[in-house]
């Protein structure tokens, strides 16, 4: 396998920095940690994490805009799940290092 070019490294570094910027917020990190365990509704996330509704919605919006989470509607409930394989892999590593 060929060594990556400088452009390849810079592109990868840019993607990693973008992901790390999103994760560098305690509420978003906690949300992703919970979502790494499976799909949850807003109400479930609020009850489990103690993040009040306005903050919760704002942070879920950031995660959604950045492509880290996706939604599924079931009646009046919206279910959130991690949509990014990179975010999921990073959350699993963080969990193993800091929460185990």
TrEMBL record:
What keywords were assigned to this record? Answer: DNA-binding, Transcription, Transcription regulation
Q: List the PROSITE patterns.
A: HTH_ARSR_2
- Say if the entry is tagged with keyword RNA-binding: no
Residues in HTH arsR-type domain copies: 9-100
Q: Which CDD domains match?
A: HTH_ARSR
Q: Name one Pfam family in it.
A: HTH_5
Q: Matching InterPro entries, A to Z? A: ArsR-like_HTH, HTH_ArsR_DNA-bd_dom, Metal_resp_trans_reg, WH-like_DNA-bd_sf, WH_DNA-bd_sf
The identity of this protein, by name, is ArsR family transcriptional regulator
Q: Which organism is it from?
A: Methyloversatilis universalis (strain ATCC BAA-1314 / DSM 25237 / JCM 13912 / CCUG 52030 / FAM5)
């Amino acid at each position: 396998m060929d060594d990556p070019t400088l452009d390849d490294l810079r592109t990868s570094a840019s993607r990693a920095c973008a992901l790390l910027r999103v994760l560098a917020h305690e509420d978003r990190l906690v949300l992703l940690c919970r979502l790494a365990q499976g799909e949850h509704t807003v109400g479930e996330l609020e009850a489990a994490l103690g993040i009040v509704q306005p903050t919760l919605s704002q942070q879920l919006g950031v995660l959604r805009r950045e492509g880290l989470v996706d939604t599924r509607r079931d009646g009046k409930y919206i279910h959130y799940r991690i949509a990014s394989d990179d975010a999921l892999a990073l959350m699993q590593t963080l969990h193993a290092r800091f929460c185990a």
